[in-house]
Amino acid sequence: MTRKQSSSDHGPVEFRLLVMSAFYHPQPAARSLARRFLEEWAQCLTPSVDPPRVEHLIRSATGTVLEPFVFEEPDVECAVFLARIAFSPHVGATRFRLVSRDNLGRDGGLVLTHSGKAYFIERFIGGSHRIRVSTGWSFAPATFPGLKRNLAATRPAILSSGPEGFEIRVGGLDKVKSYAEAGGFLHGTPTRLRSIGLTLRGAGKTLTMKPSGPEAMIRVMAHMAAGDRMELGRYDSDTPRWHAPRETLPRLLVALRMPDERPVRLPTLRAVAETDLDGLHCPMPGFPRHPGLAEKVALSRWLPVADPWLEELFGHIHPPPTESS
């Protein structure tokens, strides 16, 4: 099932994910991979502002006494790179706003212009330079939740057996109760997991799924024997869809396998939560250079992936088991 690239007003999810990885991922190998990929594209663009000039404007900015402008070293490097994109003919932005790490939220900050100038916008209600800017490019690094808490996209679900049957546990989920309340589907079908007899319960950061009884166990095991996949999270508008009660959730694909005496690691692939990328607002007419399969696979070892990658990556990372396996 093919999924469309996200049309989020914040900008292409793939681009925002790669930018966050290139400058903030705790693993040097992941940073290097994403940075190299982005640089190959950026070198084809011609910004209207010289990058050293942008860096000078950022490093010399102080803000105000009540609202000091604070940027850490990775923030400066990331902002200089983003300015090359924002002020290129591909995007054609005239303003790019940088929000201080000391700001609460995404308002105010240093505004760079395509003519190589800068001015400061205050959040304080009594400030003398208080202009509300809600559109255009902006970068608020303090609002990134941090990649250290994110799990690798391939962290498996666990199938375990006991005297009363089996259960499937998917760990490391935020908003786990919403996943349980919303339920899930057999991937690529309108068949709900509850309709085949799986009950879902969320506690802490773990979603637990169990058959509701002996007949349900038989139905679920038929899908296990077939190697079917479960899908937890959202669908695009052009597929059979459902919504969580109060929010949209990142998707997960989980391949079913037959239970064993020992716990079974179920192949899993996770999409990144788009809200984790909201620190970068970069509306632009598409991201023309998409990562290749090898790059997507490498990034998935460290962090959740862009939702449009899920189907392509799953079949490559988790091929169906052979009869001998």
| Series of secondary-structure elements, N-terminal to C-terminal | HHHHEEEEEEHEEEHEEEEEHH
Unreliable parts: 1-7, 235-246
**Approximate shape:** elongated
Strand order of the largest sheet: 3-2-1-4-14
Counting helices, strands and paired strands, the structural category is: alpha+beta
DSSP summary: helix tally? 8
**Residue share in β-strands:** 15-25%
Mean pLDDT: 84
Number of domains: 2
Structure description:
A 5-stranded mixed sheet has the order 3-2-1-4-14, covered by helices on one side. It has 325 residues and is α+β, with helices and mostly antiparallel strands. The chain folds into 2 domains: 1-150 and 272-325, no CATH class; 155-266, Immunoglobulin-like (Sandwich). The model is unreliable at 1-7 and 235-246 (pLDDT under 50). The chain has 8 helices and 14 strands.
Keywords:
325 residues, disordered N terminus, alpha+beta, 5-stranded antiparallel β-sheet, 5-stranded mixed β-sheet, 27% helix, Immunoglobulin-like
Helix-strand blueprint:
Layout: H1 13-24, H2 28-42, H3 51-60, H4 73-86, E1 95-98, E2 109-113, E3 118-121, E4 137-139, E5 157-162, E6 165-170, H5 176-182, E7 185-186, E8 198-203, E9 206-211, H6 214-226, E10 229-232, E11 252-255, E12 264-266, E13 268-270, E14 280-281, H7 293-300, H8 310-317
Parallel strand pairs: 1-4
Antiparallel strand pairs: 1-2, 2-3, 4-14, 5-6, 5-12, 6-9, 7-10, 8-9, 10-11, 11-13
